[in-house]
Design a protein that fits this description.
Blueprint: H1 5-13, E1 14-17, E2 23-26, E3 29-32, H2 38-47, E4 57-60, H3 77-93, E5 96-98, H4 108-114, E6 123-126, E7 140-143, H5 146-155, E8 157-160, E9 164-171, H6 180-191, E10 199-204, H7 206-210, H8 213-221, E11 230-233, H9 237-243, H10 252-264, E12 275-280, E13 287-289, E14 297-299, H11 312-325, E15 340-343, H12 351-361, E16 371-374, H13 379-387, H14 390-397, E17 400-401, E18 422-425, E19 441-444, H15 447-456
Parallel strand pairs: 3-4, 3-6, 4-5, 6-7, 9-10, 9-12, 10-11, 15-16, 15-18, 16-17, 18-19
Antiparallel strand pairs: 1-2, 2-8, 13-14
The chain binds iron/sulfur cluster (SF4).
Length: 471
């Protein structure tokens, strides 16, 4: 019978139906980091339990790790304690840890794919909401809470109810300077941040087909911001080309056999989706958030919406957002002064993101009133960027060039906004307080748009932007 990838992979991993109606789902890959795992390991220890499948469990440090100096012991006692706890837990349970000395450390959703751990047809869990990133490879990837981290460590399985599947088809050519980030911000803006509740999103259409794996990861990464439980793209030749030769991917003949199987799990053309949404890529402009959730966004050349023009339930939230952000309906986002420019996070800190941002800043200087930082998603991304000289481009422009980590995506480490600073950010969340200051303000956008804003000192349209330096 025709089926979606979601149905096929779900059925292959279903262990049994639980008395409460949920499914016990086998987990093929469990990714662990320092912040959501200490309590889970403690609970295992208290019960005298062992990790069920250490060979399917991999760890890294990313959330709390400082990015300016990673010399141990860390100046931040909490970061040192959490890192030491993860090291001890991995040693005790025989889990492979990609630590700072490994050369493979980085944001968990960046290193999984680049190491070839993330593969089509897997079920993947991690104690971080943006685990949906791994769906770019045709995996079912779920962000889980600490108690579920404990459950997966102990049983290598998870109790879940299957979500419905919404196919989001994007067709047409993206205009120059319009990126995957603009596509996903547009999708969330159109459907809303709650529309995905009870759904997994399948991204399809010729626009998605043409995207690189980095771009597909950006799209899937923010599925959770649209309320979806997961997001995925059907595996294809782009997926296989990315994975070939990666450290943990199958090698030689085994890789070719794996490709045959990966092809077979893609959604059948006559599969039935619970919902289908279609978007025209040609109509998407560089997009920026103006509010306090990722659905409150606007194409850069259109005025901010009027709360009075939307139905009652949304109106109060829009008024709250305008007040918090200090913005006004009807105005344009261009010209909004920024204080901080952050290029980083599991959404947009891969090599291709850094290349695009470097292309924009090359030969320019960061505006004197802006502090700007580039935080590569992994040690491997950092090293690759340095081989291309991107670090020199950023440093010459006045950016801080940092070590890998989550950094200012979540303000759980020394990289934080101060007071009411406004940050042009390539990350994924603009909730109040997300970047470390309760009153700090986040504007989400593509890395190229962040780069242009850093130089201009204000939000600009990267399509038409020319810096003061070049007139
Ligand atoms: S970069 Fe942000 S969203 Fe991604 S794993 Fe780190 S904290 Fe989570």
């Amino acid at each position: 019978m025709a089926a979606t990838l979601f149905q096929k992979v779900w059925d292959l991993h279903a262990v049994r139906r639980l008395p409460n109606g949920q499914t016990q789902l086998y987990v093929g890959l469990h990714l662990v980091h320092e912040v959501t795992s200490p309590q889970a390991f403690d609970e295992l220890r208290e019960r005298g339990w062992r990790v069920r499948a250490p060979e399917r469990t991999f760890a890294t440090i990313d959330h709390i790790v400082p990015t300016r100096s990673q010399v141990r012991p860390f100046a931040d006692g909490m970061a040192e304690t959490m890192t030491s706890a993860l090291e001890r837990n991995c040693r005790e349970h025989g889990i492979r840890l990609f630590d700072l000395a490994s050369g493979a450390q980085g944001i968990v959703h960046v290193i999984g794919p680049e190491l070839g751990l993330t593969q089509p047809g897997l079920t993947i869990t991690c104690g971080d909401s943006h685990t949906s990133t791994h769906g770019a490879f045709g995996a079912l990837a779920f962000g889980i809470g600490t108690s579920q981290v404990r459950d997966v460590l102990a049983s290598q399985s998870l109790a879940m109810s299957p979500p419905k599947v919404r196919r989001i088809e994007v067709n047409g050519r993206l205009a120059p300077h319009v990126y995957a980030k603009d596509v996903i911000l547009t999708i969330i803006g159109r459907l809303g941040v709650k529309a995905g509740a009870g759904f997994a999103y399948e991204y399809a259409g010729d626009t998605i087909d043409r995207m690189s794996m980095d771009e597909r990861m950006t799209i899937c990464n923010m599925s959770i911001e649209g309320g979806a439980r997961a997001g995925y793209v059907n595996p294809d030749e782009t997926t296989f080309a990315y994975l070939r030769g990666r450290r943990f991917a199958p090698q030689g003949d085994a890789f070719d056999r794996a490709c045959d199987w990966w092809r077979s799990i893609a959604s059948d053309p006559d599969a039935v989706w619970d919902d289908v949404v279609k978007l025209d890529a040609a109509g998407i402009a560089p997009t920026v958030t103006w509010g306090i959730n990722p659905g409150q966004s606007v194409p850069i050349d259109l005025p901010l919406p009027d709360p009075e023009s939307v139905p009652d339930p949304d109106r109060a939230g829009m008024h709250e957002a305008f007040e918090f952000m200090g913005l006004r309906p009807g105005h344009l986002m261009t010209g909004t002064r920024i204080d901080v420019a952050f290029i980083g996070s599991c959404t947009n800190a891969r090599l291709s993101d850094l290349r695009e941002a470097a292309r924009v800043v090359s030969g320019h200087r960061v505006s004197p009133h802006v502090r700007a930082l580039v935080v590569p998603g992994s040690q491997a991304v950092r090293a690759a960027a340095e081989r291309e000289g991107l670090d020199d481009v950023f440093r010459s422009a006045g950016f801080d060039w940092r070590d890998a980590g989550c950094s200012m995506c979540l303000g759980m480490n020394p990289d934080k906004l101060e007071g009411r600073e406004v940050c042009a950010s390539s990350s994924n969340r603009n909730f109040k307080g997300r970047q470390g200051s309760p009153t700090g303000r986040t504007l989400l956008m593509s890395p190229a748009m962040v780069a242009a804003a850093a130089v201009a000192g204000e939000v600009v349209d990267v399509r038409s932007w020319t810096s003061p330096d070049n007139g």
